[in-house]
Amino acid sequence: MTRQWLILAAAMAGMASGMASGDDCFLLTVAAKYGHSHDVEDLLSQGVDVDCGDGWTPLQFAVSEDHADTAEILLQHGAKVDVKPEDTGQTCLHWAAYDGYLEVAKVLIEHGASVDAKDDDGWAPLPHACVKGHVDVAELLISEGASVNLKDHDANVPLHWAAYYGEVPVVKLLFSHGAKVDATDNDGFTPLHDAAMSGFHLSTVKLLISHGADVNAKDSQGSTPLHWAAADGHLGTAKLLISHGADINLMDDHGWTPLHDACIDGRVEVAKALLSKGANVNVRDHDGKTPLDIAEMNGRFEMAKLLMSKGGMKLAQTNVTDVDKV
């Protein structure tokens, strides 16, 4: 490939601005980005700095485009494997994990990439693979020593992210390597909380419960997975949690039950499910408000109608004796 072609390719791709300074360095960066390993080899043999660049290095460009062979050549010539951009602190292995570039990940690890290096959010490569469901990359990372219970800056472990995004094969993989089912983050969320609030991954909820997840675990505000499912209107998740022993009348730190949570945004179908299983229609929170109070305060008139049909009353209508009779 000619130098003129490399320059033209860079211009067409909009790479000229903010790229490596120096003509030869610029050409090396272009060749790395497009995976032209022969040109990379030629330029390096001429003495071009393998880590040249004002922003990304040639290795970062090669990795970002899934060019494993080119990355191998750069690393053989001494490219820094764990180089990080200033804006994210992510290494090349973070990128490969997120994008599912298995062969690139193998090359990086073979050349000493840290499998537990943390980016600016405290994420190692493994959670990046987990959120995208790249089970093959996740398995590689774990086999090379990545910790399945390593916490990020918010104390999330990889299982939190796999559960939230409903990546069942990844969840199974993590469990097979000792992931803690009830690990808590800084907000007290367990993976089951995350799966419940995402609401669309019943198979993930079932899997977590089958591995012993506490259906009545409370977060830092005292909310259980059922509180979150009710608040977000996730009917299937709510029913599943109830069928596995979730306490429908358990209060959070404000005295709210899941029924209170269902009322705030008018989650009528969830409220019906809760009431059918014996939810207390007139339970009062720490301010004395009943579910009917919450429904009317938020203009949820269909919900209010449902509650009244089940004997629901407002604070002004209730007293301790009334509530005890419900």
TrEMBL record:
<dbReference type="InterPro" id="IPR002110">
    <property type="entry name" value="Ankyrin_rpt"/>
</dbReference>
<feature type="repeat" description="ANK">
    <location>
        <begin position="287"/>
        <end position="311"/>
    </location>
</feature>
<feature type="repeat" description="ANK">
    <location>
        <begin position="88"/>
        <end position="120"/>
    </location>
</feature>
<dbReference type="Pfam" id="PF12796">
    <property type="entry name" value="Ank_2"/>
</dbReference>
<feature type="signal peptide">
    <location>
        <begin position="1"/>
        <end position="22"/>
    </location>
</feature>
<keyword id="KW-0732">Signal</keyword>
<keyword id="KW-0040">ANK repeat</keyword>
<feature type="repeat" description="ANK">
    <location>
        <begin position="54"/>
        <end position="86"/>
    </location>
</feature>
<feature type="repeat" description="ANK">
    <location>
        <begin position="154"/>
        <end position="186"/>
    </location>
</feature>
<dbReference type="Pfam" id="PF13637">
    <property type="entry name" value="Ank_4"/>
</dbReference>
<dbReference type="Pfam" id="PF00023">
    <property type="entry name" value="Ank"/>
</dbReference>
<dbReference type="InterPro" id="IPR036770">
    <property type="entry name" value="Ankyrin_rpt-contain_sf"/>
</dbReference>
<protein>
    <submittedName>
        <fullName>Ankyrin repeat protein, putative</fullName>
    </submittedName>
</protein>
<feature type="repeat" description="ANK">
    <location>
        <begin position="254"/>
        <end position="286"/>
    </location>
</feature>
<feature type="repeat" description="ANK">
    <location>
        <begin position="221"/>
        <end position="253"/>
    </location>
</feature>
<feature type="repeat" description="ANK">
    <location>
        <begin position="121"/>
        <end position="153"/>
    </location>
</feature>
<keyword id="KW-0677">Repeat</keyword>
<feature type="repeat" description="ANK">
    <location>
        <begin position="187"/>
        <end position="220"/>
    </location>
</feature>
